Amino acid sequence: MTFRPESTTDLSELARPSGAFAMLAVDQREALRQMFAQHQVEPVDDEQLTQFKVAATRTLTPHASAVLVDREFGLDRVLAERAVAPGCGLIVAADHFEPAHGELVGWTGIDPLVDPHEAKRLGAVALKLLVLYRPDAGQRERIETVERFAGQCRDAGLVSIVEAVSRAPVAGGTWDRDEGVLAAAAELGSRGADLYKAEVPLRGQGGAAEIRRRCAQITASVGSPWVVLSSGVSEDVFPDAVELACSEGASGFLAGRAVWASCIGAPDVEHELRERAVARLRRLAAIVDETVGR
Fold first, then answer.
1. From the CB of residue 114, how many other CB atoms can be counted at a distance below 10 Å?
2. Does the keyword Transferase apply (predicted)?
């Protein structure tokens, strides 16, 4: 039997009846602006991002166990328009991004404008923090940030979700992104967060046995349930990647791009969300229901 870490925190408001997580992410910010910019000549303004987030939330959350929304472009309107379906848990992104090292998101920290107690009052059940793992710098800062974030969530009665993403060394040179995925889990996966969010090993492109081996290593490193994200994984590959991860101890997914990215640029985005993104999300939910419950 696959070892599955036990959480001391009630995660049921984020989970499906099966206990699996089928969570939707619409918290992308400047990266989402870039995605729209690839399909149009006119500037992508903030309102366009917000309208997409509201539409995706309204259309997809009836089929998701939780939804992740950002403060900058999504939260206020999503709440004002009551776009989150009943029974779908609300997660608020508590990360602040800045460009650095030639990357659009090159530095992250805790957003001081996200008050955990206020988020709970607004209906959130969890906060999420993105942390960039680099092999040559920042270990102490990363650990301290994760521990502080987990403590802030705990004090407010919120679930804490930590997402670690492997990035190149600050000093440059050769590096192994996939070894960084495993190293990040070992470094940050047992620092007090209630749920860990990991990149898919090998972006789902390696042999199944190797992907499973690496997922099992993440399970052994992380002291909480964990889920996969979809950035860097094509929508065609992601369902198989989710199944492989869950067969080795993952408890589901928290993903956006593999669900809705191909809708961007369509003549009728909302139609594409209804006709295609819903089907993808429902398929993913069925996979985690089946695999996690084995």
1. 20
2. no
